[in-house]
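Handoff note, outgoing to incoming analyst
You'll be picking up this chain. Sequence as last confirmed:
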Amino acid sequence: MKNSEPVWRHVEAKQDAAIELSDRVWGMPELAYAETRSAAEHTAYLNAEGFRVTENLAGIPTAMMGESGEEGPVIAILGEFDALPGLSNEAGVAEHTPVPGDGNGHACGHNLLGAASLLAATAVKDYLAANGLKGRVRYYGCPAEEGGAAKGFMARAGLFDDVDIAISWHPASFAGVNEPISLANTRIDFTFHGRASHAAASPHLGRSALDAVELMSVGVNYLREHVPSESRIHYAYLDAGGVAPNVVQAKAKVRYLIRASDVASLKPLVERVRKIADGAALMTGTTVTTQVISAVSNLLGNDPLEKLMQDNLDRLGPPPFDAADRAAAKKFQDTLSAEDVSSAFRKMGMPIIESALTDAIVPLDSKRAPMVGSTDVGDVSWKVPTVQARGATHAIGTPLHSWQATAQGKLPHAHKGMVHVAKVMAGTAIDALNNPAIIAAAKADHAARAGGPYQCPLPEDATPPIGMSLAI
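Most recent structure output, in case you need it:
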């Protein structure tokens, strides 16, 4: 019997409490760096399970770490619990039905993400204690993945320096090892300062900050034609200067999210965007100031850990979905387009079939479409050998960052997918702890890929943007 199979029973023994935690966090969706109640729930769970808890990591009030075990290798299991704005929905309702309130929703499944990671860490803790084994397991509660780069600030603060390997996961339509491809990115606020005046009586005396923002948008739109195909540039107005059209807007702010294949490619692209902002200010007679809100690295893969995780997935098999789960998922799949569904199959390199929930494990060598999103797990992966799973928690085709993802977050098929991936992570951790050669191979692979010390993409003077969600 493989070492990982007994730890799966430890997962099953604690799954009810983790499911309840996930549902509670679903019911209190909080945005980046404002996850006060959600973090408190995770901290209470850690304390109840006997972990040694450290709070306020890297100066972030909603970041915490729980450790258990003595001596031996250190295994980090990463969790998240932040939500998204504007994506609220009633649980289990297969139509757009926002919940009254602030409009926040767990549309990326981070209520499941944090709970499953905590469940895996708890199972590893219990396994080590039951078998009298050396080794330390840590659960890192990491806030603000959605744009806040908390793991980058945590990595820069040295919180992963003594970790041997790190394990994480993300909700998805399929179960498999996450392909370690993501985009490096940075978020920058550009604030233009002009001069107010009466828009009719004295327009010549005004200098419009809003005009500058709009001219910057024009310039960046032309830039998009002349950047590498994998690059992405997005923006959102944070302050359009007011609501009075008869006043020349004296101040306006726009946030740009700039992505590239890696940190080295990101830097020159950011400089080009900055020059466009300077040009917009010059054309309008305004000035511009900037503030870097966050920045993350691209993911770094690790062959030994990915093969180890795949072995656990193959032995465990797909999540145990039943007919009721499939019927519930089909209602949500019916709200999606045929393109949504077919794209999900193609993204994972899986054959397109009539199915609302997966019944297979994605092979490690499947021909997938590259992920073009970003994650601050990338910064951890440059510090230590890191592996991530994909957990099958929602109907095939469900887009992340959608009301459909929010609405499925408390359904039985989401819970089953969450427990399934907790077993995968716990099994991966135990197999590594019981085989020092795997950890050694993972470290050698990491050193060869990284080619040198971790270079944090955050500016030295950047601090965690604790209040970033106040602008939303």
